[in-house]
Amino acid sequence: MQKLLLTAAAVSALLTAGSANAAIVMGELTGGSAFNAGGVFQQLNPAPGLNVGNNNQQSNNLFAFDEQQGVTLLSAIGGLAAGTVVNSHYVFFDPGPSRRGIGYVDFDGDILSVLDGRSQMEMTDALLGNANVNYVSVNLRGLENQDSFNTVGNRINIDFTASNPGDYIRVLTAAPAVPEPSTWAMMIGGFGLVGGAMRRRRKAMPKVSFA
């Protein structure tokens, strides 16, 4: 019984680790007129039917939400080769009047690429987008000359100035490696052998009695 419990617990832990998704960890708005007007970072968990774009938010906040996870790219894009496995996230700034927002967003996976052009985002909406989100005014997405960003490891630093309809980017992060089925079989078999050896060792231990 202990052998079975050991194996089940170990496999459960490995399944959890192997299927983990990269996600937004935190973010912050640190400067600019949007920050001075009370803007903050807001992570969204989109409900079905959320409209993003076309001035739907009209907020001083810096927004971000997770999109599809563990997706294999069908073609090369953003400097990444076809076949690369990524997790996708959407970061945007949609103020009412023209404002500047300076801040950052952290993820729990390293940033591989940032899609900041209209065509790049439009061609990846179906593959990488969040199924609960309606991406509107798609022909006006991307960044302009006054906008900038840089990435360091798992952090993207942004400096956006936007009004109508806002600034929108798609951030692709590294997806955790998931073992192949043959690897799972070897690991599970190994746990079984370890459990069996422990059981035999307990049986082989001499019994000590005292008069």
State the end-to-end CA separation. 33 Å
Average pLDDT number: 83
Discrete helix count: 4
Shape, principal axes of CA atoms: globular
Described by strand count, sense and barrel closure, the largest sheet is:
6 strands, mixed
Percent helix range: 25-40%
Roughly what fraction of the amino acids lie in strands?
Answer: 25-35%
The sequence of SSEs as H and E is HEHEEEEEEEHEEEEH
The beta-strand count equals 12
Query: Which structural class should the secondary elements be placed in?
Result: alpha+beta
Rg, rounded, reads 24 Å
Low-confidence residue ranges: 1-20
Descriptive report:
This protein has helices at 2-18, 33-36, 118-128, 181-204; strands spanning 24-31, 41-43, 50-52, 62-66, 71-72, 85-93, 99-107, 111-115, 133-135, 148-152, 155-162, 167-174. By secondary structure, it is an alpha+beta fold. Strands 2, 4, 5, 6, 8 and 12 form a 6-stranded mixed β-sheet that branches. Strands 1-7-11-10 form a 4-stranded antiparallel β-sheet. A two-stranded parallel ribbon has the order 3-9. A hairpin with a 2-residue loop joins strand 10 and strand 11. The longest helix is centred in the C-terminal third of the chain and has 24 residues, at 181-204.
Topology (SSEs and partners):
Elements: H1 2-18, E1 24-31, H2 33-36, E2 41-43, E3 50-52, E4 62-66, E5 71-72, E6 85-93, E7 99-107, E8 111-115, H3 118-128, E9 133-135, E10 148-152, E11 155-162, E12 167-174, H4 181-204
Parallel strand pairs: 2-4, 3-9
Antiparallel strand pairs: 1-7, 4-6, 5-6, 6-12, 7-11, 8-12, 10-11
